[in-house]
Amino acid sequence: MDKVIGFAPDADPTTPGALLACENIIPADVGVVGAPTGITPASTPALAAACVGAAVAVKLDDSRRVFAGTTTKLYELSGGAWTDVSAGSYTGGSDTRWSFCQFGDASIAANLSDTIQRSASGAFAAIATAPKAKIVFTVGGFVMALNTVDGTYGTSPDRWWCSALYNETG
Length: 170
Hints:
Helix content: under 10%
Strand order of the largest sheet: 5-6-7-8
Number of helices: 0
Largest sheet: 4 strands, antiparallel
Number of strands: 15
Order of helices and strands: EEEEEEEEEEEEEEE
Shape: globular
């Protein structure tokens, strides 16, 4: 029996122990573990339109915010109901997907069609100096944005932006 060396999608397919494709696993201190199964509580109503991205954001006080996005709106699950927390109406198309990340107490959302959004509580608002981005994530003291669209360079699938250190709005 070969020892499992882990997820290595770029490895030669004949490499013993390499996992070339994986589903429902996440990295852990001990290697990988099974991802939790998503469930929808019976009392949760349906969104007004198809969900194209969702996240559970954990704030610094360990409280959680549950978000879901449609092509035109962002919603937060609160008290068993979806509340519209959009900054107006978004311009997403049929292939739009929302990406979410948490930076301290600020929840960040991006969809490539609209300027990156931020909410510390209540409704989201556009980050005025941010580009549009397909993917957002946090690393160290920064918010990173990948596959961006801005006024200077246009659509740049290979371009990335990052926030100022410990300042997601800069």
